[in-house]
Write a structure and sequence with these properties.
2 domains, about 10% strand, binds iron/sulfur cluster, 13 helices, about 280 residues
Length: about 280
């Protein structure tokens, strides 16, 4: 099964993955494992790189993860291809795939599997792609050869904490851009100061691991999905021109069109005032 997975991931341009015994994972949602009928076995941890050339656009006003189409759709596509192949090849084994809504603590498990270290920004930092990865897991009742690594932490340079706007105002800018309804005067001021329509990458951008990965160009994803239909600078015209179907394909759609629209209107108003 290991070599089967190795071939599959290679064909799909995924190089950062590793198995970890399920017993070494911290189980946070046991009911998901019960539902899959898996009590023991292996969690194959997968780090999917998503940073593309488009993310280097200086005019970008979206978090890098939202430049491409929705990553949930990517995982659906990947797992819908993988699962039938596994079931056909290993009919006696059980499998379940997860991304985000996972039965295990994914960042911790990925670090234990040896995919990278955990940053002070709480993200997994891989050597090639820094923290610009989406984590997913394939869980099986098969015992795959696996190494358990001690959890490594980043060097703790503190640059992410220093640069974080949350330290000054107690609100994560990323969460703020996703907040529904009207923003308070203070929240509006923070949004305008940072100019982000969706998300915040500050704690990733200042990290020396990101700088190294950019310098060596290892950061760039070679997965075609993440380079298709990129939007780097979202405008009201682009948003209003999107059909509901196209809008739902984007990562910034999950809080509804009005939340994104509100941010764009506030930022446009600021532009008008400055002129
Ligand atoms: S995403 Fe932005 S606001 Fe949130 S913790 Fe990171 S730097 Fe701070
Ligand atoms: S900026 Fe420094 S402290 Fe923050 S995650 Fe990167 S290496 Fe760690």
């Amino acid at each position: 099964m290991f070599s089967f997975l190795s071939n599959f991931f290679q064909k799909n341009f995924i190089s950062t993955w590793a198995p970890l015994p399920l017993s070494a994972c911290r189980i946070t949602k046991p009911y998901l494992l019960e539902r899959a009928g898996i009590l023991d076995g292996t969690a194959v941890m997968i780090a999917v790189p998503y940073f593309t050339e488009a993310c280097t656009d200086p005019a970008r006003n979206l978090s890098a993860y939202a430049v491409s189409k929705n990553y949930h759709a990517y995982f659906d596509f990947l797992f819908n291809e993988l699962m039938p192949l596994l079931k056909e090849r290993f009919p006696d084994r059980k499998f379940a795939c997860f991304a985000d809504h996972s039965p295990i603590a994914e960042v911790e498990a990925a670090a234990r599997a040896g995919l990278g270290c955990i940053g002070e920004n709480h993200l997994l930092i891989t050597e090639k792609y820094a923290s610009y990865v989406f984590l997913g897991s394939l869980i099986t009742d098969e015992s795959l050869p696996a190494e358990i690594h001690p959890i490594r932490h980043c060097e703790g340079c503190g640059l992410c904490q220093k640069a974080c706007p949350m330290t000054e105002c107690g609100v994560c800018l990323s969460a703020l851009t996703q907040k529904k309804g009207a923003l308070s005067a203070e929240e509006t001021e923070i949004l305008l100061r940072h100019g982000s329509v969706w998300g915040c990458d500050i704690c990733q951008e200042v990290c020396p691991h990101t700088k190294r990965a950019l310098q060596s160009r290892s950061i760039f994803s070679t997965i075609p999905y993440f380079s298709e239909d990129s939007i780097t600078h979202l405008t009201l015209e682009i948003l209003d021109g999107m059909s509901e179907e196209t809008f739902l394909e984007r990562a910034f759609s999950w809080r509804g069109r009005e939340t994104v629209r509100r941010n764009l209107l506030l930022l446009n108003r600021k532009g008008d005032t400055q002129c």
